[in-house]
Amino acid sequence: MSVFAKKIWRFWVSLRLTIFLLILLSAVCVIGTVVPQNESEQLYLQAYKPSTYAVLRATGATDLYHAWWFQLLLGAFTLNLIACSLHRLPRVLRHITRIDPVLTDERMGTLAHVRQIRLSRFTPDDNARFQHTLKTHVASPRVVDQNGTVFFFAESGRFAPLSFFVTHVGIVVIIIGVLVGAFGFQGFMNLAEGESSSVVIDKQNKAQRQLDFMVRCDKFDVLYYETAGMPRDYLSTLTIIDNGHEVLTKTIEVNDPLTYKGIYFYQSSYGIASGGGGEVLLRFVRPGQQEGTEHRVSVNQRFTIAGTQDEGEVEMIVPDFAMDGNGQVFSRSQEPKNPAVRIAIYSPGRQPYRLWSFANFPDFHQKPDAPYAVHFLQYYPRYYTGLQVTRDPGVWIVWVGCCALIVGICMSFFWSHRRVWVRVEKKNDRLYVVTLAGTCSKNKEAFHNLLNRLAAVLTHKGASSC
Amino acid sequence: MLSSKLLGIATFLYLICMAVHFIYLFFRTDFFKKAALILIGTAFCAHTAGLGLRWYESYQLGYGHIPISNFYETLVSLSWTTVIIYGVIVLRYKIHVFGALLFPIVSAAMAYASLSPNVRDEIAPLIPALQSNWLTYHVLTCFFGYSAFAVSFVTSIVYLVKTRTTGQRQHDASGELIPSLALMDDIMYKTVAVGFLLLTVGIITGSVWAHYAWGSYWSWDPKETWSLITWFIYAVFLHARLTRGWRGRRMAVVSIIGFCCVLFTFLGVNYLLSGLHSYAR
Ligand code: HEM
């Protein structure tokens, strides 16, 4: 590598750059949380002076996370992460694959924990006991005998040094998943009950997008908590129609979407379908009588009032009744705030009689000359369900990356690479010098205690330790 | 309701805990250490019983859910997780001085939750978006993480105070009241490590939940973004320590900055940035 290339590589693998980028990214993200993102121009002009708004817009601060320079920062961070991880990997691999059970004086110099013990004897029995202790506290030792000097080597958590790599790969995989996700889309569709469609409106550019199957909304329902009157659940029953066949029916709710061919349908909003529709429950009472007859009917459906020759018809259902200055009826909103129906009553040999009936005001508008008093008992509006429709081909990659990230972090925090070397030198028949040495990557104190314990096992039979 | 009474008792006991810790700072006798431990244990039992009962009561009201859904419940639960993490540290390292900083925070959170008129303490039903098991996993992991960071924060403060008065010397006369700098450095690191793991799991479970509830695992919402900022800061802490060998005062400062981010993620986003964003859709 040329000097120049080396310099560039040094720059990209440096941890100083990581720390700098992490702090810079944090600072930039703060801006993104303080400046409202992707709001309307009107809202910004309420909050900021026009000149400030112009600067915010020009720098991309109003859509910060999609600004080119923010993406560039993320890119630099990713590059840093990849370079740094690859740079360290060979060294770590070398470190964990080169195992030398022989404890040389040179190696001893590099180890943090070293203890020496003098024993008056070291019987095969002692040997077995000691191996057993190593096995229970570290791992089964390898034993090497070199000209009467015996070496034990025990190692645990051998792959722990790779944990940083698992962690970083996890992050890179998440980033790949996010990038793959860019090939998907997010959109929405509103489906009235009974309606089916294959058209999704893209969230970003509002363009129409054609799915290669149809979705039908069979039913929409809102459930309420009995005591609190708050919505408890929004439920839509959806059917997928692919190639003319009904292939799948599922009732979705918030937190439980439907998936078909990689496309997710989420319960997102609802409303009363425009153009009225739905059903009403009416009670027709003859003047002077108490009891009446009840009918559940939909709009423009002519029906015979039970027990009579008369017929009725609901001509119009208005969810939120209001009148404009000219006496024209209109619906103030799509909420069932003031439901009203216009009913026509056809009695044989008489002019049709028309009247309004209001769900909220049972006694209003009931004229004495009317052939019936009509009580508007219940309104069953025809709802539409608002579905969010998403395809994200990268989401599984993101989840895999997340798992690797968690596993990697657990490995690096809780898994220690521990190595213990033991050398038993026979000086003469009455003197054995035992050297215990080791390293560990985590929890040094516990490791120190472990070496003490191993020493204690050896000195158990009345030897001196120093 | 009985659960409120129990939580009131817990609040009261935490206040006494705080007082006992202050007294311990002056009269460093074993008696006050023992008294503090017994008080913490009793208060914690009342706290746990109160939370458990509140959970049970919510089922009796017909919309049962784990008590972590409104501000009152989050304050009480966050205090609970903090006492657990603190308890682990006390039992493991036999250090009592951190309690003198921690219990004012815990009792203030508990007292604010039950006394402030701004905090509604009735058990409310869950809106549909919150009805998910992921809510439990997400909130619990985040809270245990926040609590670990809180303990790290308290340790950092003690560390800074000690080095201000005695310099970076490892041994000094404050003796057994304030632990050695090396030990505090170690506690600071370990609590941040555990907190980092839990925060990571918390962010990921939150993403999974958002994926199922709203169809997008990440949407740069202010709360999400602040949790990411917090995560970045603690990543700086870990890397500076592990590979650049930072120790002591510098780490204490990073840990304090990190905890400020935690506080902002938990409170600031809801109260200072609330004008234009609303998290609970
Ligand atoms: C926010 C992103 C990052 C996270 C969450 C993260 C996480 C981690 C974790 C958990 C460890 C293991 C610590 C341990 O061994 O106890 C680690 C180690 C390390 N990371 Fe990162 N990392 C991130 C970004 C980076 C970047 C961009 C670099 C590139 C320069 C980097 C360089 C290192 C190095 C050199 C180590 C030490 C490996 C060792 O000594 O064993 N990290 N990282």
Explain what you see.
The complex is a heterodimer of chains A (466) and B (281). Chain A has 466 residues and is of the alpha+beta class. Chain A is built from ten helices and 23 strands. The longest helix of chain A has 30 residues, at 68-97. The model of chain A is unreliable at 462-466 (pLDDT under 50). Chain B folds into two domains: 1-126; 129-281, no CATH class. In chain B, helix 3 (71-93) packs antiparallel against helix 4 and helix 5 packs antiparallel against helix 6 (181-214). Chain B is mainly α and 281 residues long. The longest helix of chain B has 34 residues, at 133-166. Classes of the chains: A alpha+beta (466), B mainly alpha (281). At the A-B interface, helix 2, strand 7, strand 10 and helix 9 of A face helix 6 and helix 7 of B. Protoporphyrin IX containing FE sits between chains A (15, 18, 80-81, 84, 88, 161, 163-164, 167-168, 171, 409, 412-413) and B (232, 235, 238-239, 242-243).
Low-confidence stretches of chain B: 275-281
The tally of strands of chain A reads 23
Order of helices and strands of chain B: HHHHHHHH
Helix content of chain B: over 70%
Shape of chain B: flat
Largest interface summary: A-B, 51 and 47 residues
Q: Structural class from helices and strands of chain B?
A: mainly alpha
Count of distinct strands of chain B: 0
Mean pLDDT of chain A: 86
Tally of domains of chain A: 4
Q: Which ranges of chain A are low-confidence, i.e. pLDDT below 50, for 5 or more consecutive residues?
A: 462-466
Bound molecules: protoporphyrin IX containing FE
Overall geometric form of chain A: elongated
Strand content of chain B: under 5%
What count of helical segments of chain B does DSSP give?
8
Structural class of chain A: alpha+beta
